[in-house]
Design a protein that fits this description.
Layout lengths: L1 E6 L2 E6 H19 L8 H23 L5 H17 L2 H15 L5 H11 L11 E6 L13 E7 L8 E2 L11 E7 L8 H14 E12 L1 H4 L6 H10 L2 E8 L3 E8 L27
GO molecular function, one term: rRNA (adenine) methyltransferase activity
Pfam families: Bmt2 (PF11968)
Enzyme class: transferase
């Protein structure tokens, strides 16, 4: 049915049913759009923050270990670098850039990969009464919450970004043989001291139960372009701590490892030495 509407241009026929339908469609589009929050990313800015933070951390650690600089001068130089680190936002800004990077890339949420491997290797069944205890080190959030029926996750970080993550220093934990699995996703490379990186691996041996699992994710460049570390050397390190490699694969930028704790530590030490010659190498290293 149509009515005539008088205007300065004459009579125009308007179909009410059509108007109602157009209005409904418009409202529906508005409602759908309102359900999707708009998150804006600045890829270049986020990458710059992450790169600068890592660089400043390395410089600070190098100064602390330098024996040739007088204490007063060393303290002043470290204070200057720490001030620069705070000017770019400090650890909060670094973690926010990491979180946005995770969202931007769909991201590589390590929990998805870990859960996939746990199921693939039949590590735990959801029907079992005892939950699998996982320690997620350097967590931005509790990404295992959706699997709470069979996973009991303890997400920790030195500087948590929300109340779902516990504030704790991984190297200070005393929960010996208390975890079925530990996840170190892009955490070892964040530590600037190569000796502490080795301590992190030793700590995993202390905290993981026999036959438990260790998941490690590293930037591919740490293993493919390092002067002091390659995959074989890294696997040998973990082997000396009683871990047997179950899985190792690489993406375009990351390297993934799944280890199983199968034996006692051998006590073998691994020093910093050149395993790959040539120019344009990075200096990533781990000492055990």
């Amino acid at each position: 049915m149509a009515d005539s509407v008088a205007t300065g241009l004459g009579n125009i026929s308007v179909k009410h049913s059509g108007m109602r339908q157009w209005t409904k469609n418009k409202d529906r589009k508005k409602k759908k759009a309102s359900k999707r929050p708009i998150v804006q990313f600045n890829t270049r800015k986020d990458k710059k923050i992450i790169a600068e933070y890592h660089t400043l951390n390395k410089q600070i650690n190098a100064l602390r270990k330098s024996p040739s600089i007088a204490k007063g001068e060393k303290d002043r130089m470290i204070a200057d670098l720490e001030e620069k680190r705070e000017k770019i936002g400090g650890i909060n800004s670094y973690q926010e850039a990491s979180r946005l990077g995770e969202a931007r890339h769909g991201s590589f949420n390590s929990a998805k990969w870990v859960v996939k491997q746990l199921k693939a290797f039949d590590v735990h069944h959801s029907s079992q009464q005892t939950k699998l205890k996982i320690l997620d080190v350097g967590a931005l959030d509790n990404n295992y919450q959706k699997h709470c029926k069979w996973i009991q996750c303890t997400p920790i970080d030195l500087n948590p970004q929300n109340n779902r993550v516990i504030q704790a220093d991984f190297l200070m934990l005393n929960d010996k043989k208390d975890y079925d699995a530990i996840v170190l996703s892009l955490i070892i490379n964040f530590e600037g001291d190569f000796r502490k990186r080795g301590e992190m691996l030793r700590k995993c041996e202390e905290l993981i139960v026999d036959q438990g699992h260790l998941f490690i994710v590293l930037p591919l460049a740490c293993l493919e372009n390092s002067r002091y570390l390659d995959k074989d050397f890294f696997v040998s390190m973990l082997g000396s701590l009683g871990f047997e490699v179950c899985l190792c694969h690489s993406s375009r930028k990351l390297c993934f490892f799944m280890f199983k704790k199968t034996s006692q530590i051998s006590g073998k030490s691994f020093s910093k030495h050149v395993v790959r010659k040539g120019g344009n190498r990075n200096n990533f290293a781990i000492v055990l």
